[in-house]
Amino acid sequence: MTDSIGVVIPAYEPDILTLERYIESVRRVLDPVVIRIEIDAPKQATVSRLEEVADVNVSNTQRGKGAAIMEGFDALDTDVIAFADADGSVPATSLSDVVRQVSEGTAEVGIASRRHPSSRIVAHQTVVRRLLGDVFAFAARKMLPTQCRDYQCGAKAVRADAWETIGHHCYEPEFAWDLEFVSVAGSLGYEIAEVPVDWEDHPDSTVNPISTSIELATALVDVKRRTDAIATSPRFRDVTKTDRSKLMKTGSNGE
């Protein structure tokens, strides 16, 4: 990989030892210019430990996963920017595969996919989480203009110049950001590479499967409306990231 790479890891109440090991692995495998931890409402002891192994940006409030990723992406100036979940469910070798699709010019956007037929699931989710995820993925494929197998897997990469455009249309602050990002990228005509990965579920995750599923179902309707509008509405195409920040703070859906 000849492009410069920056990695954002959003974190909220992470397992510090797991995160430290994951950062070490990402640094060894990808050799990124920067690893930036976007952490919400942490203890000072946590910040002190993480500052020894990565750049850390602290929010004293709980912004949500999407808001944390977007702040991190906007702050980086590398050729390729990527994010990975803090639990390391997508190992560094698989994250590297996702980044390589973008760095080598195969696509402007790379997304990890647990549901790709070539993916290897090391540890499965519970039956309930897997069922909810399958139902959501099916509904999203039926509703959204951007078709893929797995919208929510926790590793994605994008060329910086593509993010400049895609980011103008993203303002989901929570877990629905993954869905929005993929749908916006596809609606804007960017090539998306869906990449098989090794993946391991972490049952101690802070994600509540029931409340998150409700959030995603609600967001799916909003994301469909917005991405449908991107192609036809100058107002949607001309929105800036400054406008996006205002929309997030006010809770507006962009209409």
From TrEMBL:
One GO BP annotation of this record: protein N-linked glycosylation
A Pfam family assignment: Glycos_transf_2
Every Glycosyltransferase 2-like domain range: 7-164
Record key words, sorted: Transferase
Molecular function GO terms recorded: transferase activity
Residue ranges crossing the lipid bilayer per the database entry: none
Descriptive protein name: Glycosyl transferase family 2
